[in-house]
Each structure stands twice: as C-alpha cells, then as structure tokens.
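Sample entry (146 residues):
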Amino acid sequence: MFRGNHPTRVDEKGRLKLPAEFKRHIEEKYGMRFYITSRDGQTAEVYPLEEWEKIEQKLAAMPNSNPAKKKLLDRVSYFGQVAEMDTQGRVLIPQILRETAKVMGEVAVFGKLTYLEVTNMDSFRQNMDANPLTDADAEALAAFGL
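Predicted structure, serialized as tokens:
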C-alpha cells in the first residue's frame, strides 16, 4: 500500500523522482512499468501497470455504450502514457499532463493505497482549504467504519 506525503521534484525534462519509500515498495511488489494519467487534469496519477490493468478489466466489463465509461476513457487516454522507471528511480510525466496540472519543480507525492498522486503543492493546499471535511463527510466515512 502507498501512504503518506513525500515531497519530491519533477525535473526540467519532466521526470518525477520517485520518493525512496515508494520506490522501495514498487521494486518489491511491482515491475518497472507504470501508467501515468489523470481523471481531471489537476493531478497526475501514477499507477504500477499491474494496478492499472485491474481498472482496465473493470472498464472492459462495462458496455461500450455507457457514457460514463466513454468520458473516463477519453480523459485517462488523453492524459495517459505508459512509462518505465529508469535506473535512478525516475518516471516521465506526460507533457500535456505536466502542463495542465502544473506538476513541475517541487511537487507533493501522496500515497493513495494502490497508486501515487502527484500534485502542485500550492494548488493542493488551496483546494484543501476551500474544501474542508464536513459533518456530512464524517457521516459518509462513518458508514464504512472510518
């Protein structure tokens, strides 16, 4: 499982330096290949290819006529690319996603259980301040024992 916040950098060539803790977990459990995409263009989602393929299997089971499936596939294809981790633990973030999500220079890398989320730290803080956890959120989480 990926967890926590590990600040790092996206260099001038668009390569994300995977934080050591995440890199170690990836090397132990997954291969060197990833699918990097976004659902909203605001954050980059870095999936070990094995985890992304689980999502693809679920999508393949849905009818092609499903409009939500089409919307999701349009977005994850538009922003997405397969990437391979180099020997220094870096993966290339697709250029269109780097520009749209403003993930260049100092970034935050959040563990999201089965994938990593890469975000512009200033944008993340602004969004978190604008959208605090509410009582309704607490109730929804409580329904799952959280």
